[in-house]
Design brief:
single chain, about 210 residues, alpha+beta
């Protein structure tokens, strides 16, 4: 992205995919690719330099809108401090009732907005159910025909349930959003030569074919 700077202020932004008009002068889109940096800046066109130092993972945080500024001979786009998404559910309060914000069928103490914990735990349950679904037919066959379920299948299904319960406990016990993010962040637990990428939350067991 590019910006037009006139009299020290940013007046327009350009994507760089079409020609532009500045005053009485028309310029082809080639100025964004073929012109040098100094040639563009001579007519007031600056490439926007993004400062992402405060930008955070949007799975866990709400980033602010980008603020653009011109200074020291460059145009910079930057974020303010990101806000962590709520890790716990938000419930309707008495003040919400006073303000008329509670919809029909809801009351004080009912769920207003799901927090990250609720969303993540639901995902764990779905993933565990999907893994178990692949071997459900063993259970159905035993119920229908009395055929014994192989011990390897029984062991695997138990392991999936145990791990899923452990993951749900880890999520429940996380004190805040950064703690949740840490559970899902892969780190190298091996060496530089033989990296092993793992996350504190671990993984659900997968039945090997």
């Amino acid at each position: 992205m590019f910006a037009l700077v006139e009299s020290g202020s940013i007046t327009k932004f350009f994507s760089g995919n079409r020609g532009i008009t500045i005053g009485d002068n028309q310029y082809p889109k080639a100025i964004f690719t073929l012109w040098s940096k100094s040639e563009r800046e001579a007519i007031g066109i600056y490439e926007v330099e993004m400062d992402n130092s405060k930008r955070k993972d949007e799975e866990w945080y709400i980033n602010t809108n980008v603020t653009y500024a011109f200074g020291s001979g460059k145009v910079t786009g930057s974020y303010e401090d990101a806000t962590a998404k709520a890790h716990a559910d938000t419930l309707y309060t008495s003040q919400d009732k006073t303000d008329g914000l509670i919809p029909d069928g809801k009351d004080v103490g009912d769920l207003r907005i799901e927090g990250l914990k609720t969303i993540l735990i639901r995902t764990i349950k779905q993933q565990a159910a999907a893994e178990l679904r692949d071997t459900d037919w063993y259970i159905v066959r035993k119920a229908d025909a009395g055929t014994a379920v192989p011990s390897s299948i029984t062991t695997h299904r138990a392991a999936v349930r145990t791990k899923a319960a452990s993951q749900e406990t880890q999520i429940t016990n996380a004190s805040d959003t950064p703690a949740l993010e840490t559970l899902y962040t892969y780190v190298n637990t091996g060496t530089e030569e033989n990296p092993v990428m793992e996350r504190p939350l671990g993984e659900l067991p997968v039945l090997e074919s």
